[in-house]
Write a structure and sequence with these properties.
about 90 residues; mainly alpha; single chain
């Protein structure tokens, strides 16, 4: 996995793309849409968490741990802020 952490703008872009994907693919779950969007935007980082405890594809509840693993502390703070990044 790449040691470079993604930033807040990357997090915003990820959730924006995941939201758009869910609008198109209505059967996709939250974690599935986040992982697929991440794989499209940041393939090295998301390939690095595939089939690990941080992979939200099959488990929506892994999204917070994925954010902590892949994103810098400012992005993590944003994720838990008053402006939650939701789908």
């Amino acid at each position: 996995m790449s040691s470079v952490k993604l930033n807040t703008q990357n997090l915003i872009d990820l959730f924006r793309e995941a939201k758009e994907a869910r609008a198109t693919y209505k059967s996709w779950r939250f974690g599935q849409s986040v992982f697929n969007a991440g794989l499209n935007l940041f393939p090295n980082q998301f390939e690095g968490i595939r089939a690990t405890p941080y992979d939200p594809f099959y488990n929506d509840s892994c999204v917070p741990e994925m954010v902590k693993r892949l994103f810098d502390s400012d992005a993590v703070t944003h994720f838990y802020s008053d402006e939650p990044t939701t789908l």
